[in-house]
Amino acid sequence: MRRAVCPGSFDPITNGHLDIIERASKLYDVVHVAVLINRNKQGMFTVEERIGLIEEVTAGFGNVVVESHHGLLVDYCRERGIPAIIKGLRAVSDFDYELQMAQMNHGLTGVETLFVPTSPTYSFLSSTLVKEVASYGGDVSHLLPETVHGRLVERIAERKAAQ
Ligand code: PNS
């Protein structure tokens, strides 16, 4: 089985993420989507919620496994025999940090990182921007899977009501 991992925070998954996962799922037998837990970052969605949303929107691909991981990405890969990390590159500005991480990860365990150019439709897209725009009432429905957009609008309304 040829395996690869698409890692990230996925808070929440966007159409940009989904595009990369779908393309990876056509190249590999099994694609792991690893939701990396960062205890220093308060998310909009819990890790369990993020996993549920990713499972829902990737179910149709048929070969995607979604899991959370706390710790180093290279350990996640080593424990599961995954030789390749797939990352989307949106713009040159992503490259510096992504290259550093790829070189560090390769130096740690020999795991390879493969970069996939993001579709130009999503080159400006990030979960952070989507949350910010949505929280001020901007329309981000074209940037998220429908079910994810619905949950984001709900969550923002819940948070506003609790303030
Ligand atoms: O979606 P993000 O937040 O841009 O994803 C970044 C992520 C989670 C892929 C990166 O921070 C990561 O790999 N974290 C796991 C911890 C780790 O392995 N750190 C060393 C990287 S060289």
Automatic annotation (TrEMBL):
Annotated site location: Transition state stabilizer: H17
Keyword match NADP: no
Keyword Lyase listed: no
Residues that coordinate or bind ATP: S9, F10, H17, G88, L89, R90, E98, Y122, S123, F124, L125, S126, S127, T128
Cytidyltransferase-like domain location: 5-132
Example GO biological process: coenzyme A biosynthetic process
GO molecular function, one term: pantetheine-phosphate adenylyltransferase activity
Enzyme Commission number(s) of this protein: 2.7.7.3
Family indicated by similarity: Belongs to the bacterial CoaD family.
Protein's job: Reversibly transfers an adenylyl group from ATP to 4'-phosphopantetheine, yielding dephospho-CoA (dPCoA) and pyrophosphate.
HAMAP family found in the cross-reference section: PPAT_bact
Full protein name: Phosphopantetheine adenylyltransferase
Species: Kitasatospora xanthocidica
